[in-house]
Amino acid sequence: MRDVSDMQRWPELRALGLLVALSGGAQSIGQAAEAVGIAQPNASRSLTGLERELGVPLLTRSPRGTELTAEGQAVAEWAAQVIDAYSALNAGTRAIQEARAGNVRICASLTVAEYLLPGYLATFTSAHPGIDVGLGVENSAAVVAEVRAQRCDIGLVESVSLPPGFPAAVIGHDRLMIAAAPSYGQTWTEPITAEALAGIPLLVREVGSGTREVIDTALAEFGGATIAGEYRSNSALRVAAATGVAPVVLSDLALRDDFRAMRLAPLPVADDVDLDRALHALWSPKRRLSQGARALLDHMIAAQ
C-alpha cells in the first residue's frame, strides 16, 4: 500500500505546472502563469512557496528573465511526471463519465412512471438515440432510498417532503382528486371540507407513497384520512372505486381515462383541501450527474 500519510506537505499541482512551463520554454513567470491560466502575482507566490516547501533554490531571476537552476531543472523533470500522471487520471475519469453518459438508470414513483414518464422518454430517446435509459418503479419512499444508496442516477417522486441536502428540480405538476362510481357521486354534490373529508372512508395508496403523503398532509389537522382500503396499485384502486366500495384518492393523471369513460366521477372538495403537488427529480449530492443523466433531467424540466 502506498504511503499517503505525508500528503499535507506535498507541493500543490499548480506550482508544479508553473515549473514545467518554465522548463518547456516560458521565458518569464508571466509567460508561465499565462500557460497555466493564472495571474502573475499568484504564480510568483506559488513558486516562492514551492521553493520554501522543498528547501531547494529553483529559480534565478535577472533583467533578462527567469531561469531554472540546475536543481530546478531536475525538479521540473520529476514535476512533469506528476503532471503526466494527473493528465492520465483526468482522461480516465472523463472516459468513465462518457461511458456512463450512455447508460442512465432512473427510479420513479408509480404515478410518474405510468402517466408522465412515457411521454418524456419517447421524446428524449428520439433526440438522444445513443443513451439507454433503465427504469425501476417504486413508491416515493423507496425511490428516495434508491437515490440515497446511489443505485440510480435520478429519482422521480411525488412526495410533499424531500430529503434534506438532496439537489432537486420540479419536472411536473398534478393534483389529487377524490373520485367515485357515478351512483355514489349523485349523493355528493357540494364541495366537502377537509374536516368532513377526514371522516369519510377512502381508498388510498400505501404509506410511503407520495399520493398517501399528500392526502394525509391535507387532512392532518383532523387526524389524516380514514381508510376504507389500502392498495399499492393505482389500477387496483380505480377498479375498487368503480365497483362502489368507496371514493378513491388518486392523481388526476391516473383518473382521466375513467372520467372520460364515465366509470368514475370527480367529487367536489372545498378550497381548504390542498391536493396540488409538484413532481420532483432528485439525485445524490455525493455523485455528479453523468452527461446522459443531466441531458435527461434538462429534457424533463423543459418538457413540463
From TrEMBL:
PROSITE patterns the record matches: HTH_LYSR
Q: Which family does it belong to?
A: Belongs to the LysR transcriptional regulatory family.
Query: Could you tell me what this protein is called?
Result: LysR family transcriptional regulator
Q: Which domain of life is it from?
A: Bacteria
Where does the HTH lysR-type domain start and stop, copy by copy?
A: 11-69
Q: List the taxonomic lineage.
A: Bacteria, Bacillati, Actinomycetota, Actinomycetes, Micrococcales
Keywords of the record: DNA-binding, Transcription, Transcription regulation
Q: Which Pfam families match?
A: HTH_1, LysR_substrate
* Molecular function per GO: DNA-binding transcription factor activity; transcription cis-regulatory region binding
